[in-house]
Amino acid sequence: MFIGRQQELDTLNKLYHSGKFEFAVIYGRRRVGKTALISEFSKEKDTIFFTGVETNAKQNLDNFSRCIMEYDTGMAVGLSFASFQAALEYVFELAKTKRLVLVLDEYPYIARASKSLASTLQLLIDKNKDSSKLFLILCGSSMSYMEDHVLAYKAPLYGRRTAQLKINPFDFFEACRYFTRFSDIDKAFAYGVVGGTPQYLMQMDDSLSIEENIKNTYLNPASAMFEEPNNLLKQEVREPAIYNAVVTAIAMGCSKMNEISNKIDEDTSVCATYMKNLTALGIVKKESPYGEKSSRKTIYSIEDNMFRFWYRFVPENASIISRGAANLAYKRIAPELSAYMGGVFEEICRQYLWRLLLDGKCAVDFCDLGRWWGTNPKTRTQEEIDIMGTDRDSALFAECKWTNEKVDLSVLETLVERSNLFHYKQKHFYLFAKTDFTKGCMDKAAEMGNVTLVAYSDMLK
What we know:
By secondary structure, the chain is α/β, with parallel strands linked by helices.
């Protein structure tokens, strides 16, 4: 069953119905659902769907020829084109009189083996774009290759595409559609454990408890998830061992560049390259205090929940996991899950605020959201605000509490006090609670008039 991606489908269908030559580049990390998206889009459309493999040019050309032959049954059986140029010219000819979709999936595999492919495509696009009804889709999982060799200014295909879609993991609210039997609380835990990548969401069985799901995936040495971070890094980067060391350092609490470089014993300049690539992959997140651009305060954290959960709990328990002691490993993990979920809940709250903004229901028309931290000049103490967003004259300040206790008045008072470090004409406060709010907090919020109290259950309505 295909779930979500309505905006991407609408974009592709709009391009399809233009009736003229279109060239879309679709890229994103592995397991994120690119091929499923294209398959859903191309249903009941005339499509030649070719998936490249990591082999030589001849093998890919033979496979491509077979795909064309399966589409055009009038071709001689067993025919193989002499070159990719000949094969592509044939497809462009087919698309002169009717709408035809040509998908080159895993394009980096094809292009690496056939060095002239990009230039050939450039030539044929320039020659046929004004007369062709072809809808060309290039899709790839190698983020660096797609960005450097397809989308970049110096790439042969630069300026030829009519659209590009970077496919990201689902947000929490989209991910929830995978789980019809989980409780609302378990939906949050599931998202915290595997994130929004469709392939990982499908590993979760919503007929079981979160505990059983964790045991069956991360605490089971035979499961696909047990080795997934290492396997993904091996596919995406050239030096997976160093990248693994970087992510491990961040998971252990190193958040600043110098701390990370010292931990892995690499120069800061070298480490910066690794961090840039991990950020591009959506594994690591780079942050500065909201509204500030000072590199001195920049910190790094693990953005992808699957990586964050794995690096937080699996390596330190690897020895007992490998011996099949899933129950013992979970017993060690369980007391820390609530604290782990604090950061996940903040992420869910940010996504909720973005949805409010896009629906025109947010109290502040912010341009961006972020976390703020810094020194209070009066008390000389470190302060932090979970979520902050601003427009020209207004600001929102939010606090997120993933705790079984009701959020009380002191949380609101602290947030208001911290907001006084900033000078905006209008301020609005959001409090997010896992459960509910005390009467004192609700009364004060009503009295102030610029406070929105949001219980987690309300976010899912």
